[in-house]
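Researcher: Hi, I'm a grad student and pretty new to this. My advisor asked me to get structures for two proteins we've been looking at. I'm not sure of the right format, so I'll just paste the first sequence and hope you can take it from there.
Model: That works fine. Here's the first sequence with its structure tokens right after it:
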Amino acid sequence: MKLAPLIELSRGDTLECLHFGAVAVLNTRGKLLAQAGDPHWLTFSRSTLKALQALPFMEAQGPAQFGFSEEQIAMMCASHSGEDAHITQVQTMLDKAGLNYKALRCGCHVPRFYSLLELTPPTDAVFDERHNNCSGKHTGFLAYCVQHGLGLDSYLDPLHPLQQAIRRDVARAAGMDANDFRMGIDGCSAPNYALPLSRLAYAYARLASGHRDAEFGESFATLSEAMTAHPDLVSGTARNDLAFMRAGRGDWVSKVGADGVQVLGSKSRGEAFAIKIIDANMQALFAASVEVLDQLGWLDDAQREELKPWRARTILNVRGLPVGERLPVFKLQKP
């Protein structure tokens, strides 16, 4: 495996953990600008794919047809926490598309904000598919099917016309041949694709560039503006994407995926990086992402301070005592 050590964790003066991964930094021309480890490492895109999965609906003018607001476009890109604001937006989307939540095939789980905020769900709480972190994306899927008169029951089948359209447009955005994709099934039961990190970064550089993109300009502009305008809907309270996009002051389009993947694009620069931590440690992922931002020169002093909790250099125990350090051990290299 051509992976680099990215983050080391020490306790006392002894190395305890070492997190390996890879980083790829690209621009909208597809030029590799910097790397750590193998920039073409093949990894499942997981939830970083959501903005790209929305492309067929965006290209078909779906939001205009159904009257989806900017907030609801953000929800199609979201891995939300199941807070009240998220559920309200999903229900409004369903209502506009004339759908019942029971049409969603994403499954149900306890809203993530409970575990994130160390809360216990009420004993009488009832959850359904709308509380799934991917319900906004799935509602967009269903709206596309309504728009095109397609069957709803099988909308997650890889051979369904919706999923074929998604595969086509993701390949176009990533600059790949769709036949080269390796497919798997995501946690929400939707098809997901493994891409080289470099192709994922390229797609996000294009997404962040918005109207400047010659192929998907209007769709990319609408999606990236919705994400940066409503990062609270894309993620939720105390979540990484919310913190990163707020720190980016409207310039950074950020999306985290499960099992240690993150992509972040800069609108002003027309550049993006994709990063994967191979052992899926999310604290190491966030620390490495902040370090990448710093090494690229994308941080000013205020942003560096704002993202300090996500860098989490000092490891504290439950009493708040410092017991170790989490430090970056990589330097981005030019290809």
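Researcher: Oh nice, that was easy. Here's the second one.
Model: And its structure:
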Amino acid sequence: MVPDDFQERVVLVTGAGSGIGREAAQAFAARGGLVYGADLNERGLAETKDLIEHAGGRICVTRVDVSDEKEVAAFLARINKETGRLDVAFNNAGITGGAHRIEDYPTSDFEKVLQVNLRSVFLGMKYELPMMKRGGGGAICNTASVAALTGPGGMCAYAASKCGVHGLTRVAAIENSAHNIRVNTLAPGWTETPMVVSNSAQNPGFAAHATSAIPAKRGGLPSEVAAAAVWLCSPEASYVFGQMLVVDGGMTVGGFEYIEK
């Protein structure tokens, strides 16, 4: 039986047009939440909307550039006008950027990755937190990556942005815990999303190494990673503040497997 622990809750999900964001939006809706989904991918948003409504859930979708402050502010103002509250936010939108050595990395591309991955989380929380405070509390989950813990060659912008996401998360957790707002980080490993598939095509060496290094011997399903985000935002995680939950099939465990002779 699917729990209804998000009944009467208003939930924001960015990057809802595909992958982890879509799966999370579906899960929040299935558990009773009213979901507001944002993405640049309007076709993907429409597909997510159809999936949720076909299953009997509730969702409103909007094309939003999460790196643009005016668009983020307008999106949160719409939620406030229509519902008067915000209980949960999953700040999940992101891009990988190109694969280049640091000395070859185009500065404009570096800045774009930080805008989409890091600035967007700052902007999201800037406008989400006041609404949650007015409502008496809430939960925020920000998507980082195992790249915040490792050093994936060729992905300096992505790694830097994801380290920054966890730094922002910890500050937000310290500043808002007394307001009954929990803020945590989700750090997915290799997950079979459209973004990862696209990145694999341009960086096959990294893809081969990553998949071979996973103790689980497979990439994660978007639904598996989304389930962790939903848990972090649920009442079951009521005493989890400022943490990074790594969901990577053991990819960052380190060490090596014991093989008997």
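Researcher: Is there anything I should tell my advisor about the second?
Model: You could mention this: The two ends are 46 Å apart (CA to CA).
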